[in-house]
Amino acid sequence: MNILETKALYHDFSGLKVLFDVNLEVSEGERHAIIGPNGAGKTTLFNVITGTYHPSRGDVFFKGRKVTGFKPHKMVRRGMGRSFQITSTFSRLTAFQNIRMGILSKRDIRFNMFRMLNNMQDVTAETDEVLKRINLDGERDIPASQLSYGKSRSLEISMALATDPDLVMLDEPTAGMSVDETHTAVELIRRLTEGKTMVIIEHDMDVVFSLADRITVLHLGTILASGPPEEIRDNQAVKDAYLGEMEV
Q1: Which of 14, 86, 97, 157 is the most exposed, having the fewest neighbouring CB atoms within 10 Å of its CB?
Q2: What pLDDT is stored for residue 245 in this prediction?
């Protein structure tokens, strides 16, 4: 069963065409990577799927329902979580407060109830449990702006998952990380997305081939190929357009 589908999806910016007839299918429970060269339209596709952009043509279906044009907060309510290409934590809030924001969103608790938060022991306990799972309990009360880059990215990934989504969308989660940070992030993603559906944009082919069950290659705004990692690895058209003859 597909949890996510796009049908004949197009998008342009003031006449500049970015997506062309994109028909993406993501099965429930799979880890699906979207790869392609810079300018292929990957982040634009994410933005259309998550409701940041409205497609020029075509439709998005999530859990069997047409959600074309739904705003991002409605997509979150329906069970879609997302991280961004650029770190988007709340820099002045602590690691604890950032994670708590996601948990409050999951529980549909409004901001005007913040005055009551200190009395919400179950929210506090759940937030602390998430921090332990991502090894940030030692930085619980440190502002996000003061975390290392790798830990800040881990915090953002965890915020996307704190809403307990059925589908999590990760946009280049390891961008800018060192080798050690990347390894830590991959293991964190693998652990936190167990039993969930994940769609990930990623340039690091080691990350892609270690995480993905299925890979879709986007090239010049359209899908060039889609299939299991071994099939994509050996696809000559993909090599010519993106991977080259490099070892992956």
Answers
A1: 14
A2: 43
